[in-house]
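Form 7-S
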Amino acid sequence: MEWIDGIKLTDDVGLKMAGLNRKKLIDQGLYCSLRQLLEVGFFHADPHPGNLVATNSGALVYFDFGMMGEIPRHYRVGLIQVLVHFVNRDSLGLANDFLSLGFIPEGVDVQSVADALQASFSDRTRQSQDFQGIMDQLYDIMYGFNFSLPPDYALVIRALGSLEGTAKVLDPAFKVIESSYPFVIGRLLADPNPDMRRILRQLLIRNDGSIRWNRLERLIAAISEQASESAEEHPSSGESSPNPLRSKSFDMHAVVAATEDLLRFILSEKGQRVRVFLVRDIIHAADAFLQDEVVGCMFDEKPEARGSPESEGHDTLKRVVNGFRYLRQAVKLAPEVWTEMLVRMALTPEVHRFTLDILSSLIIHLKGKIPETTWEYLALKMNRGILVEQMLCGEVEGEARSFKNSFDHGHGALNGTPAYASCPYRKGIEVNQRKLENPKALIY
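Output:
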């Protein structure tokens, strides 16, 4: 038995007098509980404010161990998988999780469960952000499918609910699922177990094989940001204590190992569909680059000035560029580890074959794309020359409007004819027609 002096988490004055940071206390409590739940498997099931105090040094102390829970490894893996499927809004994956974990009985139509979950994901009026609200919503949806929680999971739900309630005392806006996500990603990256690697792939790769570029970008950004913060909080002097959620969630050696594992999966036979989608996305990104950078420079236009909506290729290109920028920052923190892995991968024949596939696909695609872009450029230049000559003959907007009318008349006569449809200057003519909507823009 030991006497411990501490400050109740509900004691605002005491916390301020001790100079304790509320955010760090929340992070520390969340880290402790998640580590108990997802790593150790033996956890405090009732971490409400009365069972936790903060010491003057900033440590958290747990009291009252009368309600403890134990969760086997396969349940811990299942809990992480449920979270990933929930974040991905993968209703079928979530329904299968419920079946494998014993939340719904054998014989229930899994597809019906998935349809009910998907309907709830689509209904924004029923969306909830806090943990208790999500659980209430889940119970409402699953009531008709004999949904029930095994005793082990019932204690987990209680622990997470109590944890969120305790954290809300310090920060009313706290969301336990959202805040747990970085730790869960850290577990996926750090654990080489095949089940955890499979869940990581599910997080980043859709069932059809396409890449979730938004998730990949967020993951790389989180690794870069948190690794940078860890380096800043861990100076050689060792004076400051690092944020537990951040410094312990992303170990760079584990990140590199997980990255290599993911690359090897993509290059394997099982990753064939992923490679097909990767080549497709690379081609879309190349098209977007050609349109924005090359054509934009030739036409002296900014992408936003064209008024055309962003394509899938533009979105992919932006995410890839951002991802590489974040990755570069992460590589700087452990260049030896990353370089060793990248060199090792670069020497594999699978990388050579896939690189050739990408290059050949780009060459075939751009073989037709570049001439089209060239004709568009020439057409615009020629038509601009005509417009400038016409404008030099008149000094007022009326002349421009008169020319626009004659242009519209001529364009209307041509439009729809076979000759016009096959004309290589057609795109340039249509571009100029849009420009003529604003005669002032024609006065150079």
